[in-house]
Amino acid sequence: PPMQPPSYGTLQYWNTRFTKTPTPFEWLQDASSLDPYLHAALCSTTTQAKPHPNLLHIGCGTSLLSHHLRTHVHSPPQIHNIDYSPVAIQLGKQREHDIYTDQHAADTPASSTMRWSAVDLLNFDAVLRVCNPNSYSVIVDKSTTDAIACSDDIPVSFPYPLTTRHPHTPLDPPPSTKTHSVNPTLLMALHLALVAKEGAQWISLSYASERFSFLDGAADGVGERVGDVFADVGLLWEVRDRWAVEDGGGESGRDGVTHRAKVSNWVYVLRRTGVPVFVRGRRG
């Protein structure tokens, strides 16, 4: 029988993977591969009023990118590393402690460490427990959207709690107990739009040449009531640039980087538009 694909959408898969292989592991390319795009994004989102923008690293896993990001910011707390797996988060926190207490001092204060949180990006309540709305200027994603795209559609109730309409507009139809299936990448993009600042940049490394095509038809899977029952996510993000970048090829597993025959991966830069996202029933 054909091999079943990995269960990327399950917490058990990731906890088991990181427990069995706690050493650093890189998806697609090494930790410095996004440097030019990160530098440009941080420069464009740094202002006199906000000289130290916050950076959200989604699906950090055991990648050394989490630690490499420290070279791009003024202070480590600007970086918020999040992952579905609490095992990965604990490994990342411990690795940061081991690296930087050895380099600096045993009494390194908490204020000089990055932020780490285990969170399900497909659950908006979970996202709001660890991320503040309108707070991140840069989002970094090294093949996390690829993994999310391998997940099953997510059952949600309409109208969805997040909306681009005024949150106190009367609902028609009223809330329903019936669930509807929503594309997981669409759901994640909506949740990220809630926590991103206007003008924020989302840098995504992917193996797919059309990874964000779902934004062009974001309303298609929701039906005629888009806007009323589920936000049109295509209004919230725009793909500004896309570049093909070659990986190095080579043997699988060597130096902890996944390598195939030399192929092109893709770097996307998305920009958060000025369309606001509200939580239904909340003011402000």
UniProtKB/TrEMBL annotation:
Keywords: Methyltransferase, Transferase
InterPro entries (UniProt xref): Lys/N-term_MeTrsfase_sf (IPR051419), SAM-dependent_MTases_sf (IPR029063)
Gene Ontology molecular function: any one: methyltransferase activity
GO terms of biological process kind: methylation
Signal peptide limits: none
Family per record: Belongs to the methyltransferase superfamily.
Protein name, as recorded: Uncharacterized protein
